[in-house]
Design brief:
This protein is of the alpha+beta class. The protein has 3 helices and 7 strands; from the N terminus they run αβββββββαα. It has helices at residues 23-39, 121-134, 145-157; strands spanning 43-45, 55-58, 67-78, 81-86, 94-99, 102-108, 114-120. A 5-stranded antiparallel beta sheet has the order 1-2-3-6-7. Strands 4-5 form a two-stranded antiparallel sheet. The two termini are 19 Å apart. The structure holds zinc ion. Residues 87-89, 129, 133, 168 line the site of zinc ion (ZN).
Length: 169
């Protein structure tokens, strides 16, 4: 599936709840995994491939395969941690962003079973980044005014598109 980039309205809209976890949701997740692998990302939210549904996939070093979470809810968070973050929808731009260090996420897997995920550090970071995508929030909203001015200058100069490299991390 082609990636959507900064400037595409689907990236700034709140994604809708998935009403039924059926085969179409599983096949969307599978296509997203292919896309994520192609660009070597850590996570990908459905709006990033143009689908306004509350579903994301993510992968961490300890996981053999990417996991999908449907209708995820951030049930809790703790700590604080600054880390450089990038986004597949704005390739080549990286920002130091402070976020909670640990998160507790609930939601559903592709079989319709409830999941409860405790994550920390990079995995927690990735989950929070993907959650933002489902709420139509891009990294730009997490920046200081100064960081944001710089980012906007760069985005105007080089509007992101399919030719760009970059990683969701
Ligand atoms: Zn992103």
């Amino acid at each position: 599936m082609p990636l959507r980039y900064f400037g595409d309205p689907v990236l700034t809209e709140r994604a809708r709840e998935v009403t039924e976890i059926d085969g179409s949701v599983a096949s969307l997740a599978a296509s997203m995994c292919d896309t994520m692998r192609r660009v070597d990302g850590m996570g990908l939210a459905a709006p990033q491939v143009g689908v306004g549904a509350r579903l994301f996939i993510y992968q961490s070093a300890r996981m053999p395969e990417p996991a999908a979470v449907v209708n995820p809810v951030l049930a809790g968070s703790d700590g604080e941690w600054e880390l450089e973050e990038g986004c597949l929808s704005m390739p080549g731009l990286y920002f130091d962003i402070v976020r909670p260090k640990q998160v507790h996420l609930t939601g559903w897997d592709l079989d319709g079973a409830a999941v409860s995920i405790e994550a920390d550090e990079i995995e927690a970071r990735c989950i929070q980044h993907e959650m933002d995508h489902l709420d139509g929030v891009l990294l730009l909203s997490r920046l200081s005014p100064r960081q944001k001015r710089k980012a906007m200058r760069s985005l105007r100069r080089h509007p992101p598109g399919p030719g760009d490299g970059g990683q969701e991390r």
